[in-house]
């Protein structure tokens, strides 16, 4: 079975400071890992994904994530936070190979960026 | 390109009523799925489909039915609504090549069962 843990319900950071949103995963094989963002009253939007190759993945809006296989982590990072980054962030995993192609999501982390 | 379209956006049901949440995508995606989002629990998979005519259960399938008669449409049916089904429902689709493609989500349906 595949699972994802996001240990922080909320992360608070001041505008201009670096931010990190944590994610750890559990899969039986090698993972496909994703980050999504949800703005109020909206659906989820794709930010970035790790499939294979370089452990540092760059995505939309200046976000990046680092895949660490030994720690089974995929933390989301941004060097300088913006107030507009305030939203709900979800980490997701898909096991490979698997016949079950749907994603498993973490419980979400609310990012609050203060001006 | 409309992407994934869900209707309705809001719905209030009485306990015991049935209804269908509609989901349509125009990207020719093979994979479609339904999730429910509850506070503190993230998104939980209800049902999914790997292609027309093929569906399977997710984590929380009880009380819901799905069918996939076409590639484009993947409706979710609530058989007899219960207050525990009060939630926000999201439909998602993704390409069929491999399992590494990102999912596209609809705007959601906010359902209240009274």
Describe it for me?
- The complex is a heterodimer of chains A (about 120) and B (about 110).
- Chain A has about 120 residues and is mostly beta strands.
- Helix content of chain A is about 0%, strand content about 55%.
- In chain A, strand 8 and strand 9 (about 75-80) form a beta hairpin.
- The model of chain A has no long low-confidence stretch (mean pLDDT about 90).
- In chain B, strand 4 and strand 5 form a beta hairpin.
- In chain B, the strands form 2 sheets. In chain B, strands 2, 4, 5, 6, 9, 10 and 11 form a 7-stranded mixed beta sheet that branches. In chain B, strands 1-3-8-7 form a 4-stranded antiparallel beta sheet, with no helix packed on it.
- The mean pLDDT of chain B is about 90.
- Helices cover about 0% and strands about 50% of the residues of chain B.
- The chains are: A mainly beta (about 120), B mainly beta (about 110).
- The interface between A and B is medium-sized, with 27 and 26 residues.
Biggest sheet details of chain B: 7 strands, mixed
Cα(first) to Cα(last) distance of chain A is 41 Å
Sheet with the most strands of chain A? 6 strands, mixed
The general outline of chain B is globular
Structural class of chain A: mainly beta
């Amino acid at each position: 079975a595949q699972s994802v843990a996001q240990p922080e319900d909320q992360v608070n950071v001041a505008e201009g400071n670096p931010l990190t949103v944590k994610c750890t995963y559990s899969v039986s094989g090698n993972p496909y890992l994703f980050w999504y963002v949800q703005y109020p009253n909206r659906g989820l939007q794709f930010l970035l994904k790790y499939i294979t190759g370089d452990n540092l993945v760059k995505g939309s809006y200046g976000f990046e994530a680092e895949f660490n296989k030994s720690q089974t982590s995929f933390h989301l990072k941004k060097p300088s936070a913006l107030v507009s980054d305030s939203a709900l962030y979800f980490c997701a995993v898909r096991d490979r190979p698997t016949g079950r192609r749907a994603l498993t999501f973490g419980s979400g982390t609310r990012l609050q960026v203060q001006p | 390109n409309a992407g994934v379209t869900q209707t309705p956006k809001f719905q209030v049901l009485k306990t015991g009523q049935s209804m269908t949440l509609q989901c349509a995508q125009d990207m020719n995606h093979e994979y479609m799925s339904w999730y429910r989002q509850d506070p503190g629990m993230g998104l939980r998979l209800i049902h999914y489909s790997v292609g027309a005519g093929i569906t399977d259960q997710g984590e929380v399938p009880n009380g819901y039915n799905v069918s996939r008669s076409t590639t484009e449409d993947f409706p979710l049916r609530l058989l007899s609504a219960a207050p525990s089904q009060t939630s926000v429902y999201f439909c998602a689709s993704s390409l069929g090549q491999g399992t590494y493609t990102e999912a596209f989500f609809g705007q959601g349906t906010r359902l209240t069962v009274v």
